[in-house]
Structure formats: C-alpha cells, structure tokens
Specification:
The protein is α+β, with helices and mostly antiparallel strands. Helices cover about 50% and strands about 15% of the residues. The protein contains 16 helices and eleven strands. It is elongated and about 110 Å long. The two termini are about 30 Å apart.
Length: about 475
C-alpha cells in the first residue's frame, strides 16, 4: 500500500507524522506541567510558553517539509521521469541541473548515464535506420508493383478484421468509409452478402466470386474471395472495372499480420495498453463555450499497436451554420468563406464516429472536445460511449502534477516538433497528440501500468487538472 503512494506524499506523511508526534509530546508535557503549576498558582505564563512552543514545532516541521518537497522530492521525481522518457521513448535527457542542485552529484551522474545511453542508442539507431531504410525501399517497391496490378487486394483475419490493404484497395474502401487497419470488414461490405460467400469458402472451395453491396447499401462491388492456405484468414480481390480504382492515387501498403492470430474477447480494462487501437482527434471551434459555439474543423489519426498508421486520417472542415468570430479565426485561421461549401457539423461528426469505431478515443483536454461531440448525439442518433484517454492526465501520471501540461510543453518534453503552420489546426494538433501518445505508451508500461484499466485508475488521481483547465 505504501509503495503505491507517490514519493512526495510519502515525504509529506513522514514530516506530518513527526509533527503530530512532537506536538503530542509537547501537549502531554504541557498538561503535566500545567497540573503542577496550577497547584502553585503560576499556570498562565507556563501555558503561554507551551502553546508558543507547540506552534513553533509545527512551523519548523512545515518549513523543513516544504524545503524537502521543493529541493528533494520534486527534483527526484523530475529526474525519474526524464530517465524513463530516455529509456522507454528515446527522448534525449533534459534534466534541470538548477532544480536538482541540492541533490549533490546525483543529477550530474544521472545526466552522464543518460548521455552515454543516448550515444549507445544513437549508434544502434543508425544500424536499425539503415536496415529499416532497406526494408522500406522493398516495401515501397512492392507497393508500386501492386499499384500496377489492376486488382485491389485486401487480407482479412479469421475474426474478419482488415490486416492488409494496398493503395488500390484504399480507394475501394474509401468509397464507403475512411480505410482503417484492424477494422471489421463488415464496416465496408454488407455482412449478409459477404457471409454468404464465406459460407461457400468453408465448403472446401478455394475461390468464390460474388456481388456484394457496400455497408451503406449505395454501392455494389464484385469480389473474389480466396482462402489463405499457409496463414489463417482470407483474401478479397476487387477488379478495377467494377470498383472505379484510381491507380494514380497510390497510397502506402498498410498491414499488421499480428491480427491473423485469434484473440479471445475480454474486457478492455484487462487488455494491454499498447495493443489497443486509438483514434487521436482534435476539433477547432467558433469559440470556447460548448453550449453556445460550434465545430468548424475535425482532425483525427489512428494509432494501432503503438504506431501511427499512415494514410488513415480525417481532416474535414465543417459548416457551423453561423459566422466565425475574428478572435477564433486568429487562432485557427479558418474563415467563413473556407467553410461555406463544407458539410454541416452533424455529417462531419458522424464521419468521425465511423472512423473511431471500436477504438479508444484520445484527445488533449478531452472534456472540451467531447462536449461538442455530445451535443450532436440527439440529432445524429449516435452515442459517444467510446473508452476515453486524455493526454493531459497521461502527462500528469508520467511527469507529475507540478509540471506544465499544455500540448506545447508535452511535445517539448518528449522531443516532438510541431510545425508552426500546423499548430492550432485540427489535424496538426491531432498528429502531435498522437506522436506524444506513442512515446508515452512505453513509458507507462515501464512504470508498471500495463493494462488499460491500470492507466485509467492512475489518471483518475489527477482529474482535478481537467477541472482547472476547463
């Protein structure tokens, strides 16, 4: 139980206990002295001196505790968080030597160790980078070859999750929704139609050709379903004459073959935090009052198994149905003319809801953005009941309440560069928040918070930060 309490709290409890014990001893001594002095008729002066010493002890204990908190506990937490960031997220050490000046040689020693670790890591990174570059070149060549083939390719896991799609398949899927790695294939193709083909595959057939409607019922596709012989799952091939594929709009080859492994369904609280799917989003609005103002832009990116998935993003302007104040335009740069032809807010919010299906929502100061989304639940008929993480609270868990937890401060702490032209745009801020999330996930695991439930339980201890922000 004691080990679950923070270092600063343990030091505070130590000094508080010392103060209480000392005060109790003084009080007992005063009482005994008072009884004796009362018999001799000189109790008033004795009592005054005793009370004065009582408050004096409290003042001294409080002063010593404040000194330890400021110059011992906080610097130690600062050093610990920097070491973890260096070890788990490859962040260069930024220990504040002035803040840790009362810790003797500890801060310089830790700085030397982390500096050496960074040099070793840089050497290893160069080797990994060279090999990664080679693999990426091969991947790009493969993607180029697949683009030249007039067939869209989608690999689907045994649990009907998309585990690979090529650039042409991205265009096919994009006619229904934004493509999403690990999404259910039934989000894109009608489940009844597709299952009829899968049933035929299960009857010892290796290939099935069938007509399948899109999930919204508006489009129709001719699909070829093929069994995968050496790995679980199946392949979907879409001929370009039926799918309106645009080869010139080539996109990366996106895959995650870990999805081919069967996973048992279990509560999200018990699932490893790094294995979850996240949708990191941000909104730009006409103002700061969710009950009066409206959304003008939504940006979102997907993080799957601790990495940002290229190409899977939302960047959509929304027509708020009202004038955008000049003060708001100065922040995000969005004008009335820019949103004049944009979809209305309900349509944009519905698109984000589809993009975030079966994912954990993540935002920086999430209550603000979620308040705008919840406003449209009645009109859209959509319920925003996704699991939710707030990077403000994650920052507090890793770096302490006393640090600054703005998005700029968090990115600076994690060596993340935000393009000034993209700051205060929905997609730019979502991208920066996603990069911060990817760096914080391994640090959370390093601190022992391995499951989603562990992380949520820890963030609840810092909930007052959001109340202060909002």
């Amino acid at each position: 139980m004691l080990m679950s309490i923070s270092l600063r709290m343990r030091i505070f409890l130590t000094f508080f206990s010392a103060a209480v014990a000392s005060s109790t001893l003084v009080a007992v001594a005063l009482y005994i002295g008072f009884l004796r002095a009362a018999e001799e008729g000189h109790a008033a002066g004795f009592l005054f001196a005793g009370v004065l010493s009582f408050f004096g002890l409290l003042a001294v204990s409080t002063g010593v505790w404040r000194f330890f908190d400021e110059y011992v506990a906080r610097p130690i937490e600062h050093i610990a968080s920097n070491v973890r960031a260096c070890a788990h997220a490859d962040v260069k050490s930024s220990i504040d030597m002035h803040k840790a000046r009362f810790l003797g040689d500890l801060a310089p020693a830790v700085h030397a160790v982390t500096g050496h670790l960074s040099k070793v890591s840089d050497g290893a990174d160069q080797i990994v980078a060279a090999e990664t570059s080679r693999l990426m070149a091969e991947k790009a060549h493969l993607a180029l070859l697949l683009t030249e083939i007039p067939v869209a390719i989608i690999l689907v896991s045994p649990t009907n999750q998309i585990m690979l799609y090529d650039g042409q398949a991205a265009d096919v899927l994009g006619q229904v929704h934004v493509p999403r790695l690990s999404a259910s294939i039934f989000d894109y193709f009608n489940e009844i139609d597709l299952r009829s083909g899968l049933d035929q595959l299960s009857e010892n057939r290796t290939e099935v050709v069938l007509e399948v409607r899109g999930s919204g019922g508006r489009l129709s596709f001719e699909l070829r379903l093929k069994k995968l012989h050496k790995t679980p799952g199946y392949m979907i091939l879409v001929d370009d004459t039926h799918a309106r594929i645009a080869p010139e709009a080539a996109r990366p080859l996106i895959f995650d073959f870990d999805l081919s492994e069967h996973e048992t369904e279990h509560a999200i609280e018990n699932r490893p935090i790094k294995g979850l799917n996240f949708v990191v989003f941000d909104t730009e609005t006409t103002g700061l009052m969710p009950n009066k103002d409206e959304i003008v832009q939504v940006g979102a990116v997907r993080v799957v198994k601790g990495r940002i998935v290229p190409g899977e993003s939302v960047n959509q302007l929304a027509n708020p149905g009202r004038s955008i104040p000049r003060a708001s335009t100065k922040v995000h740069g969005i004008t009335d003319s820019m949103v004049a032809g944009a979809p209305d807010v309900s349509a944009v919010v519905s698109g984000l809801h589809a993009f975030a299906r079966e994912s954990v929502l993540v935002a920086h100061n999430a209550p603000f953005d979620m308040a705008f989304l919840h406003r449209h639940e009645k009109t859209s008929g959509l319920i925003w009941d996704h699991p939710l993480l707030d990077t403000v609270l994650l920052s507090a868990v890793l770096f302490g309440d006393t640090e600054v937890h703005t998005l700029d401060a968090l990115c600076e702490r994690l060596d993340i560069r935000i393009d000034p032209d993209l700051r205060h745009t929905a997609l730019g801020d979502a991208q920066a928040t996603a990069e911060a999330l990817c760096k914080m996930l391994p640090i959370l695991e390093g601190k022992g918070f391995e499951t989603f439930g562990d992380v949520i339980q820890e963030t609840r201890k810092h909930g007052r930060l959001l109340k202060d922000l909002n």
